[in-house]
Amino acid sequence: LIGEKNSGFDVLYHNMKHGQISTKELADFVRERATIEEAYSRSMTKLAKSASNYSQLGTFAPVWDVFKTSTEKLANCHLDLVRKLQELIKEVQKYGEEQVKSHKKTKEEVAGTLEAVQTIQSITQALQKSKENYNAKCVEQERLKKEGATQREIEKAAVKSKKATDTYKLYVEKYALAKADFEQKMTETAQKFQDIEEAHLIHIKEIIESLSNAIKEIHLQIGQVHEEFINNMANTTVESLIQKFAESKGTGKERPGLIEFEECDPASAVEGIKPRKRKTFGLPGIIKKEKDAESFFGDPWVAQRFSACLWPRARSWRPGIESHVGLPVHGACFSLCLCLCLSLSLSLSLSLCDYHS
């Protein structure tokens, strides 16, 4: 921890600060895991809904209900894990806030150690320079003596050498004092940093253990869902699928009755046939006049006079009578003449109807 450059304090302090980064990164990791689990849960829910839209025809239809139920339970399992991870994220964030406050307090407490570190570092540098200067002055003094320099030059070099010696000794003493203070404070601070780091690692380990237990619990639930799915599929036999199809789509259990040959009975067959009444064709105006004529001829007085007037003539217009052009009237021609006669009679009847009214 001390080393040649006395940089142990800097290492321990930055390691403590790195704990905050680790806490933040752990929260980000758990948050990302929760996002993945949430997306997976939504996908499973969507898959379960799609299973409801699959074809419900045929004997395989009940199997989709098993898939839907199992998929929905899996989606709920992952959603439960999301809730637990979100609670864990809040716990990590809370710990991170407490960690920042604790580190700020620790920084104030180890401020004296930082001064001791800076002091010994500066004294060490000064001591090194004074040592180099002392060695240089001693070498210079010995060189002048060997080269036979003047007494004045030798004395002058001796003064410089003595001054360098005193400075070097002074820094050695200062270094000894700074070293003692540094070691004492550094030992206390190192223990403090170790306690902080141990507490940090213990807390982080507890968080990770909570994460592991949450995932383990959900995986146990997922295993139960899969086991239930296996059992449901084992209970869904071919016979049960066919039975469900027969119950839902069955059209009845009665078989067609026996039909025997029956001989035809002409008498009953004729009686069973009802005469069909044909609908006459006619224009609306003519039909109305025909109805008026029927009501008119229903009067006994009109019917008597109409028969006395037209019937003798109709009898005389039998086949053998010649027309105005000299041709005999037979068959259809007679029917045409009769229709003309009836038309004239209808006009006469309407006139009589007006008279009678």
Structure characterization notes:
Mean pLDDT is 79; it is low at 317-340 and 351-357. The protein is mostly helical. The relative contact order is 0.08. The longest helix is centred in the middle third of the chain and has 85 residues, at 151-235. It has 2 domains: 8-248, Substrate Binding Domain Of Dnak, Chain:A, Domain 2, CATH 1.20.1270; 287-356, no CATH class. Helix 1 (8-52) runs antiparallel to helix 2, helix 2 (61-109) runs antiparallel to helix 4 (151-235) and helix 8 (300-316) packs antiparallel against helix 9. 82% of the residues lie in helices and 0% in strands. The chain is rod-shaped. It contains 9 helices and no strands.
Key attributes of the depicted protein:
Substrate Binding Domain Of Dnak, Chain:A, Domain 2; 357 residues; mainly alpha; 9 helices
Describe, in short, the structure shown.
The protein has 357 residues and is mostly helical.
Number of strands: 0
Largest sheet: none
At the fourth CATH level, what is the homologous superfamily of the largest domain?
Arfaptin homology (AH) domain/BAR domain
**Would you identify the CATH architecture of the largest domain?**
Up-down Bundle
Helix content: over 70%
- The span between the termini is 144 Å
CATH class of the largest domain: Mainly Alpha
CATH topology-level fold name of the largest domain: Substrate Binding Domain Of Dnak, Chain:A, Domain 2
* Low-confidence residue ranges: 317-340, 351-357
Rounded radius of gyration (Å): 63 Å
- Strand content of the residues, in percent? under 5%
Q: Indicate the mean pLDDT.
A: 79
Question: Which geometry do the CA atoms define?
Answer: rod-shaped
Order of helices and strands: HHHHHHHHH
Which class best fits the helix and strand makeup?
Answer: mainly alpha
Number of domains: 2
| Number of distinct helices | 9
